[in-house]
Design brief:
Layout (H helix, E strand, L loop, with lengths): L7 H9 L9 E5 L5 E6 L4 H21 L4
């Protein structure tokens, strides 16, 4: 998955995405339209992240099948 690594610009982006306390690590999950669907402060367990991401993948898979992209 994509990882953002950067200096002060990265921290400003994280703050704009809801990380008001500048806590690291900070994880942001986006849908395919670029909307923030979930954020996590601190360590994220695999099961928690899967629970957040799997519905997004399922929705994409269903939509792709409807328009013949699958």
């Amino acid at each position: 998955y994509p990882v953002l690594v950067g200096g002060l610009g990265a921290m400003a982006l994280a703050e704009a995405a809801g990380n008001q306390m500048s806590v690291l690590p900070y994880t942001v999950v986006f849908d395919r339209q670029g909307n923030i669907t979930d954020t996590f402060l601190g360590r994220v367990h695999k099961k928690t992240l899967e629970k957040s991401i799997m519905p997004l993948l399922q929705n994409y898979s269903e939509n792709a099948a409807q328009v013949g992209l699958r």
